[in-house]
What we know:
Elements lengths: L10 H18 L2 H4 L5 H16 L4 H20 L7 H19 L8 H26 L3 H17 L5 H26 L5 H24 L11 H8 L31 E7 L5 E6 L1 E2 L4 E2 L7 E3 L11 E11 L14 E6 L7 E4 L5 E3 L9 E11 H5 L12 H7 L8 H11 L5 H15 L1 E2 L13 H9 L1 E2 L1 H14 L4 E7 L3 E4 L2 E5 L3 E9 L3 E5 L10 E3 L21 H25 L4 H19 L1 H12 L6 H17 L10 H12 L3 H14 L8 H19 L1
Parallel strand pairs: 10-18, 11-12
Antiparallel strand pairs: 1-6, 1-15, 2-13, 3-4, 5-8, 6-10, 7-10, 8-9, 13-16, 14-15, 16-17
Amino acid sequence: MSRDTSLFRHPHLAVLYVLGFLLLAEWLFPLPQFTDTGYVLVFLMLAGFFFILSAIPMSTWLRLPLVVLAILVSLDVIFFNETFMSVAWWQTFMSEAVSQGNLLLTGEWQTLSPMFRTLLFMIMLMLMSFLIYYWVIYVKRILFFFACSVIYVAILDTFTMYEGSWAMIRLVVIGFVLLAYLKLSRLSTVYANISWRDWTRWSIGTTLVIFVAGSVAFFGPKFSPQWPNPVPYIQAAGGFGEGYSTENRRIGYGEHDDRLGGGFELDESPVMYAEVEDPGYWRGEAKHIYTGHGWESEQHGEAVEEQGELNLYEEQTDVEENDATLRYTPYFQTRELIFAQGEFFEATSAEQPLNYYVDAISGRIEMGSGYDEEVGMSLSYREAEFSIERMQEVPFQEGDAGDPEGIELRYLQTPEELPERVTELAAEITGEETDRYRAVRAVEDHLRNEYEYETEDVPIPEEGQDYVDQFLFESQIGYCDNFSTAMVVMLRSQDIPARWVKGFTPGEEVEDGTYQVTNANAHSWVEVYFPEVGWVPFEPTPGFNNEANHAYTDLELSDSPDLDDRDVPDPLEDEQLDEGDTNEEEESAAAGSSDAEGGLSPVLIGTVSVMLLGGIIVFFLRERIIINWMKRKHQDIQSTEQFQRAYLSLLWLLKFTGFKRNKYETLSEYANRIDQRLDNENFTRLTRQYEDLYYGKERSSITDGTNEQYHQLLRDVHSRIAR
């Protein structure tokens, strides 16, 4: 290469070279956000040293020892405690290099140690510095690396919690400047008469273009996202994920809950598979100390029992024993815990001995060492049927509720700094109630109806700000941790013993009786103590089911779960089954006739043709047929039971005709979205009436207006389909 590339003779090349270093730096800044990489400053200094070495003309035999020395010094800063270059230092380094080198050669890359991975990363930095020097100084082209940098930051901004807005702005400015001046630098090698005046004009033009383009991009209108977040699907397909963290990471089950707040990204990677007859919440553990920022638990060494069992219910509560089989996946970060539904009392494994320890206070069930969690285990547990009447016998505000002293001491705790307005709000919500059950349901209903479920744009409380207070009075948006923590604290402020519980929701049925539980099923809920009943689960988070069996005997309407996790019945199922039986009989008769004649008869051909033609016609008119059937089926709605069936059929119809409900969308949000598309408010009114039947204190009445709204909505859907 005979070109004059000395940076000392061409200052503009030196400036462009520095800009190339800044491009590389944008690759390093995000590392702590989505990996466990630290010491970014060390990597930046090392990369800068490599850039300087690349720019200074010297022999390779001199440059190589300097590169090796810089890498060793950097490794010493990050990993070593021994004196640099001492005998012990070299012994540690060489043993690590030999053992990890063998793993590298055999393809066991996932087991490489952090130090060896860091060594490889530093070598890559060295190669990148030489490449950028070659691209900027010799080739004078940087488009490929610039495009890769933009794609890299865009991917991190999309698929991780890294906020790449300003990084993208810096990249675009640096990249455009590099592209513009490298273009002029290439022209200067062709046209020798390019003067400093030309450089000045080029600089002014480049600056104006970047400024105008940046201003339009910054201040101009921006489209909202045009497709759903692809992160959960990609993670599920790739089968990767990480444990739960409250600092804007992926959702999952984690150990640390002392600092709650901030959003998270969904992670659909599976953590366990469960074979169970009746799906329910998988209980991990309960925590009872609220600090104002999160939850903690005391160490209960005396309460831990080997091969023990939980005691959640009192003797008066009716229970039913059930069994389940669990198998954890390698992606589960907390495989040492046993998750069970209801009141756990035994775990066994036919393939290996299983020792476990039960904390009677928190309900945490931890396996002993030496057990392969991926083999699987069989669980036995008790499911309770909670008597509403018995829970309503527990007084509220007046009279002694009869709570044991130990329950009151542990589960009425609130921090001294709890803002008074939290207590005042709880008192206002429960002010008219006379029994504990109705008071608990009042708080639960208030949270479900007055606050918005959100997982991503959730603010983190400021220093010194109470987590519950910030949720109730400022953000008013959040996810399960916000709702469950708020309910526990509000109940405790009214002298109702409650505790915070975390685990998993039932998961998704992938085979008959087999459920896949993913990190996205991580959840928290509330348990409230009732004398002579025990600990009863409640669900304050909108869009989630209360899987507890609350037995209503005197009330006309039972507590119905939300519809998020239940299958909406097909209103045509019975008719379709009848038609199927008839068709099978006709086909059998036709087949018999055909066999008797020894060939395909004209009757058979005609019958099959008519059936095919009829099937095609029915297929293209299926929505209209279903709507007309529903109009006749629910022509006159008179009772709440008829309204319930009509509403469920309506949900099925909307899904069938393309108005699909989003996975985490509440009924109210869904109804509002449908009404906006149909340009009316009929579905919202029907949904409000449906929710009042389950969550309202008084039963809603069915009126002529209800029938009119229902049939008008059917007509609107029909007309929308006919377009």
